[in-house]
Amino acid sequence: MSIIDLGELRHTSDPDPLPRPPRADGRPVRCALVLLLVLATLAAAAAPPRRDVVTLPAQLAADTLLDGDLFVVLDPNPAQPTQRRMTVFRLPGGKAVWQTRVPVEGRSWGITSVAGMLLVTVYESNMPGQGTLSVAFDRETGAYRWQQPGSPIELADGTVLLQSGGEDEPVGLRAVDPCCGTVRWQSRATTGYTVFHEVGHGVDRMVVVPVDGPVEVRDAATGAVLARGDLRPPGGGPLGLVQVVNHLVLVIGEAPATITVYGLDRLDRRWSGTAGRIDFVQDCGPVLCLQTRFNGLRALDLATGQMRWRSDRWRWVFRYGDRLMASRANSSGSALEQLVVLDPLTGRELAELGRWELAQSGFGSPLVGVRRHPDGGLLVARLDARTGEARMLDVLPDAAGNCQASVGRLLCQRVDGSYRLFLMPD
Q: Domain 152-275 belongs to what architecture?
């Protein structure tokens, strides 16, 4: 911006014009400062947001876990893929704090964080007779602590429940102290299966469903039997599928097609009704969401079983706060989903959030959506079910996918397998 001095307008007929006031000292300096301030403001407005970015090395076939201020990478050995090396990075700086070799081999892996321990689970162990095996390492130091058969489930009191067997093998349960693997209680292996009731970060109740015999509700912390009952239909016949949803035990029968609901603590019968084929039942807050292959989604009143609403528009639905997030049934087979916000009591559509792929997120983490940007990289947005808004955060130029979100942080994989850590605004 330039300033042009046009001088002063004078009336030529004025016989005694007033003297011109002196020009203030420093005016050119002030004009230059104003010009610099304007240019700086325009430059700041046009500049892209500053990103705090950290690169974390990982292979394409690595298993990873974002756990608070740690990022855990389980890399395969290029010469022997059944062997793994675990490296832990401290966030947000990305410093490698420890590394260790996992002392078992296998083909399928997983990482769980429980009560100060990192558990590495081998689901297809190469050790004869071991089956699924979990190995515990100290979260802060990487020191080896213990290993035991079974896959881990975190309990509400901080105990680790190890479940072994399944499919054609008897199922065994063992609750252990995470610090040292000391067994607190265990049950003998039985045929059948177990379903769990989660509260916040862990499980507080278990429902043991044997092939024959009564169903048992157990306290997960102690293994004590809280309730026992024969839930088979009158006159005998198969029990059906048992699920635990929202402090209720659901028995879904196929012949005839029925759903019967019991209280979790005492197995007291609440209500029963006919149903078409049910693929799964979802916790939708004040209602039960029944997803059926031919009849779409039905929402039933928790207390009475009466249908509150139904729709064939939604591919899937899940509870998020006091709202429901749903995906349109006509969404393509890609990872992108057309996301909407629903009122759980009426099924009314409250907001349209657009097409997004949801980043993995833990309990209490924000809901983050990503999608490919036309110019490359990933567009990132925070999805707010309460306000019904998708708030754009950034475009990550070299991110490819496999994103994991936590409070204030987003990790996304690059095409070479490494990860980039982006600090997200509040």
A: Beta Barrel (2.40)
CA distances from 347 to 207, 281, 329, 343 (A): 30, 16, 15, 5
Query: In the chain, which residues fall in CATH 2.40.128.630?
Result: 152-275
Q: Is the pLDDT of residue 227 over 50?
A: yes
Phi-psi region of 7 (alpha: psi -120 to 50; beta: other; left: phi over 0): left
Q: Is the peptide bond before 19 cis (omega within 30 degrees of 0)?
A: no
- Do the Cβ atoms of 249 and 207 come closer than 8 Å? yes
As annotated, the residues of the chain forming the CATH 2.40.10.480 domain(s) are: 62-149
Decide if 308 contacts 347 (C-beta within 8 A): yes
pLDDT score, position 361: 84
Alpha-carbon span 318 to 323, nearest angstrom:
9
Structure tokens at 356: 């997004």
Residues 290-345 pLDDT 10s = 987 766 899 999 999 999 999 989 888 999 889 999 998 765 556 788 999 999 99
Q: What is the pLDDT of residue 10?
A: 38
pLDDT attached to residue 32: 45
Q: How many CB atoms lie within 10 A of CB 210?
A: 15
Query: Are 70 and 88 contacting, i.e. CB atoms less than 8 angstroms apart?
Result: yes
Q: Which of 117, 113, 111 is nearest to 139 (CA)?
A: 117
pLDDT at 426: 64
Residues 6+ apart with CB under 8 A from 156: 199, 200, 201, 202, 203, 204, 220, 221
Mean of the per-residue pLDDT values for the chain?
Answer: 83
* Residue 291: Cβ within 10 Å count: 17
Does domain 62-149 fall into CATH 1.10.287.80? Answer: no
Residue 35's pLDDT is 41
Q: Is the dihedral of CA 179, 180, 182, 183 positive or negative?
A: positive
pTM of the shown model: 0.80
Per DSSP, the three-state class of 335 is coil
The pLDDT value given to residue 397: 85
Cβ-contact 302, 270 below 8 angstroms: no
